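Give me structure tokens for this 119-residue protein.
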Amino acid sequence: MEDGDRSFTIVASSFDANQHEKDTRYINKSPYAAASKAANKLFDLHPKKGSVVRFKLLETTSGPSNGNTYEYEGKHVKINKKIERGGNTITITSEIKIKSVTDPRLKVQRKRPAKKEKK
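Here you go.
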């Protein structure tokens, strides 16, 4: 892991994630980037389940942010986009859009209560 990287795991999914998916660690600098990787994996493993998945990520990085949960919704969207690369034309037929569905008043929902300050 590089400096600043954080690790996350899937703790809940509308696709009924199996144990292998829940044990997979997604390492990135932000929860959003890890959610993008997780959504890609869920759609790869469950292609016939539908075009929308809701899931929760648990931060497993050691330190003060350990235990934070983040909830996301991923949509599998069909597109028709052509990209030129090295003289070749590549056609992209779909992409995954991610959005946070965590309550905006509680940007980070803690798994455990915060420590009390000493008087």
